[in-house]
Amino acid sequence: QKEEAVVSTQSTGECLIGITGKDFVVVASDNLAAHSIIAIKHDAQKQFELGDKMIMAVSGDAGDMSNYAEYIQKNLKLYEMVHGYKLTPNAAANFSRKVMAQSLRSRGPYMVNLLLAGVEDDGTPSLYFMDYLASMVKEKFAAHGYGSFFILSTLDRYYKEDMTKDEAIDLLKLCIREVQSRFIVNLNAFSAKIIDKDGVTEVGDIPASGTVHKDVPKEAIHPELIARA
Fold this sequence. Notes:
The protein is 36% helix and 28% strand. It contains 6 helices and 12 strands. The chain is globular and about 50 Å long.
């Protein structure tokens, strides 16, 4: 049973992207919810706000994604209520890793991969890469899912230290276009957010090319997808 669960996690067509800049982090996730070869919906939200300046983007089993992210989210809020202060992204990442490691040694491990992004108290941006085996590392840029096979080479080529927000968003769009043009799975819509000292801001104008195939009759397509195409 454990072996089957691992295979299902590794065969995901999902995609998470994280890029750090001078004083911010931008995080993007696809909006596809799928089961086997069936696309269930195209507006799934895979990003969870853990605080005013912190976000967790998750991918993997749909039930585990929700259970794990909400468990972390509520426990961080409980910690704040009990102790009177919020955990930093570094502390939250280590707590998240502890929960993942404990579940890995239980009968029901969480089958999720995640990116945790935030801004520390001194304004330093942080991006943590974590997988379902509870391995964690702090990175300048990171990606999860099959989309990472197309994205990491692009990030490695064009990423530079102390990027501005406009430069980071342009690089993010380049990565998304690469996935949408190269990847056989139709990741038709993405959500992206910027985390900085002022909080969390939604990023608009994310490319949605490939959302609707030209040969599919319009009456068979959801109106929102037609609007995005």
